[in-house]
Design goal:
GO terms for molecular function: thiamine binding; thiamine pyrophosphate binding. Keywords: Signal. Pfam families: SBP_bac_6. It comes from Thermohalobaculum xanthum. By secondary structure, this protein is α+β, with helices and mostly antiparallel strands. The protein has two domains: 187 residues, D-Maltodextrin-Binding Protein, domain 2, CATH 3.40.190.10; 156 residues, Periplasmic binding protein-like II (D-Maltodextrin-Binding Protein, domain 2). 38% of the residues lie in helices and 14% in strands. The strands form two sheets. Strands 3, 4, 5, 6, 7, 8, 9 and 10 form an eight-stranded mixed beta sheet that branches. Helix 2 packs across helix 10, helix 6 crosses helix 7 and helix 6 packs across helix 14. It is globular, with a radius of gyration of 20 Å. The two termini are 34 Å apart.
């Protein structure tokens, strides 16, 4: 799918509007970043949210900057640990930028792991999805779904309760370790909501009970699910973000065929956030990366990867979204029951899940 190359924010950047007082114009920022010569990212699989094409477009736009991609399969907790572990390291193992789950943004700020920076399009990012000081800001969102290998699964599950059926023995996996991965932590929340738990600590507890039952039934597979494990048959059903499932479906191109199902209940929408490491060895390249991601071009790049970019409403209002990108998304009604948990609800759920997984479920996901 061709992404528009129009960079509508360039004029705003050139004027300095929306940027902190100390910030450079876009040209000055690009020149400073070029002198640094490198950007170190972390936890950005190319199939996730269209990141492969987004990174390629950034490199084409700024060829003087080498993109150093660290640990693409890391979880949000791993990203924060990478910052902690490299506080005094200016080498290539120190990440400049982070893409982490919503609940991890405030944690990173509180620990002093991030630095403030407001992109030029700051005012078009919803207030509830950003730190007022600019330490973190929402980038995109999706909903948790079932990604099903229909070569191996005859009856495709439609809701969480279906996953407990005997026909799904050794079939169901999470797309991350629920002790560290935001995607997996929120999957436990979604299961808990489907069992009647309120969003927060209660959903975490109910979700743990569900996964204990799933594990006791012999249906849970303690393997981190991804396109390869689905194709190999090791994890015929993976609970993952809708955009990951849709990207895997495209990558596998029918071998095997995949069906992506948004469950009838327990639909959780997850917002991820961007941040710049407080110890970024290449701070100007990090800022330039943020400016690119939050430009129209960068936002449409995520949309091409099936993610709803955080500036979606602004893009839609200005009529800059190609119809082909809108047509490629799941139908709007799939999102009607989606719950957008608050930071407090996510924090309560996260504490329950990460603290109780080993004791309640006892499955070592890896």
């Amino acid at each position: 799918m061709k992404i528009s190359k129009a960079l509508a924010c360039a004029a705003i950047l050139a004027s300095g509007a929306g940027l902190p007082a100390h910030a450079q114009s876009l040209d000055e920022l690009a020149a400073a970043a070029a002198k640094e010569g490198m950007l170190s990212t972390i936890a950005l699989p190319h199939s996730w949210c269209g990141y492969g094409d987004v990174i390629a477009a950034f490199k084409a736009k700024y060829p003087q900057i080498t993109v150093n991609e660290l640990n693409p399969d890391a979880g949000s907790a791993d990203e924060l640990e990478a910052v902690r572990a490299n506080k005094d390291n200016t080498g290539p193992q120190a990440p400049d930028v982070l893409d982490i789950g919503f609940a991890f943004g405030p944690q990173a700020k509180d620990e002093g792991l991030t630095q403030a920076y407001k992109v030029a399009t700051w005012d078009t990012i919803p207030a509830e999805a950003k730190d007022s000081d600019g330490h973190w800001y929402g980038d995109y969102y999706g909903v948790l779904s079932f990604v099903v290998n229909t070569d191996l699964v005859e009856n495709v599950p439609q809701d969480w309760s279906d996953l407990l059926k005997p026909e799904y023995a050794n079939a169901v996996a999470l797309a991350g370790d629920p002790r560290a991965s935001n995607q997996a932590i929120l999957a436990v929340m979604a299961a808990g909501l489907a069992q009647g738990g309120e969003a927060g600590e209660a959903s975490g507890q109910k979700g743990l009970e569900f996964f204990k039952a799933l594990n006791d039934a012999g249906n849970f597979v303690p393997v981190i699910g991804k396109a390869g494990t689905i194709a190999q048959g090791a994890t015929p059903i993976v609970i993952a973000w809708d955009y990951n499932g849709l990207a895997w479906r495209d990558t596998l191109a029918g071998n095997p065929p995949l069906e992506i199902v948004v469950p009838k209940s327990g639909v959780v929408a997850g917002v991820y956030v961007q941040a710049i490491s407080a110890y970024a060895p290449q701070p100007n390249a990090a800022k330039l990366w943020m400016e690119y991601l939050y430009s129209d071009e960068g936002q449409l790049g995520w949309l091409a990867g099936y993610c709803h970019p955080i500036r979606f409403n602004d893009l839609a209002a200005r009529g800059v979204i190609p119809q082909a990108l809108l047509d490629a998304l799941p139908p709007a009604e799939a999102y009607e029951k989606a719950v957008f948990p608050t930071l407090d609800q996510q924090a309560g759920n996260k504490a329950a899940v990460t603290g109780g997984w080993d004791a309640v479920v006892g499955a070592n996901v890896q």
